[in-house]
Amino acid sequence: MDTGVLIESFAEFAKNKNIDRPTMIRILEDVFRTMIRKKFETDDNFDIIINADKGDLEIWRFREIVDDNSEDIWDHDKISLKDARKIEPDFEIGEEVAEEVKLEDFGRRAVMTARQTLIQKIKDLEKDYLFQKYKELVGEIILGEVYQILSKEVLLIDAEGNELILPKSEQIPKDRFRKGESVRAIVHRVEMVNGNPRIILSRTSPIFLERLFESEVPEVYDGLITIKKVVREPGERAKVAVESYDDRIDPVGACVGMKGSRIHSIVRELQNENIDVINFTENLDLYISRSLSPAKINSIKIDEDEKRVAVYLKPDQVSLAIGKGGQNIKLASKLVGYEIDVFRELEEYEEEDVDLVEFSDEIESWIIDELKKTGLDTAKSVLALSKEDLGRRTDLEEETIDDVLNILSQEFE
């Protein structure tokens, strides 16, 4: 084995990975000391001199000269006068012998083992370096290139050729990738699996949306605008609460940009995710009202103990407050941290309606609760919808919906 080439290549690797010189020398010395212990049982009386820059290695063995008949002659740090004079003829008892041990003296097998150990140390260092590097990047956006598309995940590589994993669960449902395509995502988490670093990316995390705002809106990046909270239904809808500490800056306007110029690039990156940017306020009533945008709220009743909010709207605003598939109300609840219940307010000229609670003898309470969650709190509000609409809005089975419609319709016959 060419020791010089091995040491030089190791030193070059260490330099590229920003491994400090003392660590590099320590690893090299550990490998060679292991080799010494295997041959001589101990390395106490050995010195190793490494010049990593030139690839030089020197191993020196130190022993005290004793009389040929001495009982200490078999100690690891002793040498008989007779053997010492084979090295230098003028040696005397009591002197110290410094003898250089050549690498070939260890035998081919020992040298090959040392080489394999050093290669393994290099691999371990590289894994540790990769783990630490990405551990510090958790929550940050990185760019990767798609190199393999699997059923449960997409594999990407970074600029250094390291493997990154984007699981199906962390992909936006509308994401479609092609080999060689560049993909942006955040580093979601880093874990060690069987000694190998596993780098997991995410495009569905609220933090990804937050980082996109930082990259597209200079005021957010500079800290003039703070993102207070982000909630998402990835690829469908998101709500972002923002606040400015400078009265001269309109946080919503700055985030959206002139004619939506700033937010458009974020929307495109997120597969046309509909993003509502909301001005944060400590006024809970106002915050709830803004969170249910674009619906217009008539009145709000807040139950602090139960963490529930009753919101009253005109009939034509109920569907806006709930949103497609209940997304708007679900995201609003997450944003404000309260469970929001939507109720219709009847106009004076509207025909008399009957609250669903009045049917509790005929309709099970959990079914009534399920309907109320979607803003359907009266008999007529339920009857105004088709079976298909009710099925989409609730988790009720078709047979249950038929029963409910029959019971409610009988009230007005």
Automatic annotation (TrEMBL):
**InterPro entries under this entry?**
KH_dom-like_a/b, KH_NusA_2nd, KH_sf_prok-type, NA-bd_OB-fold, NusA_N_sf, S1_domain, TF_NusA, TF_NusA_bacterial
The main place the protein resides is cytoplasm
State whether keyword Transcription applies.
Answer: yes
Q: Which CDD domains match?
A: KH-II_NusA_rpt1, KH-II_NusA_rpt2, S1_NusA
Localization: Cytoplasm
Q: Which residues form the S1 motif domain?
A: 139-204
**Keywords from the named record:** Cytoplasm, RNA-binding, Transcription, Transcription antitermination, Transcription regulation, Transcription termination
- Stored Pfam families: KH_NusA_1st (PF13184), KH_NusA_2nd (PF26594), NusA_N (PF08529)
Q: Note the PROSITE patterns from the entry.
A: KH_TYPE_1, S1
Tell me the protein family, please: Belongs to the NusA family.
Quaternary structure and partners: Monomer. Binds directly to the core enzyme of the DNA-dependent RNA polymerase and to nascent RNA.
Tell me, what does this protein do in biology?
Participates in both transcription termination and antitermination.
Q: What is this protein called?
A: Transcription termination/antitermination protein NusA
Species the sequence originates in? Splendidivirga corallicola
Q: Its encoding gene is what?
A: nusA
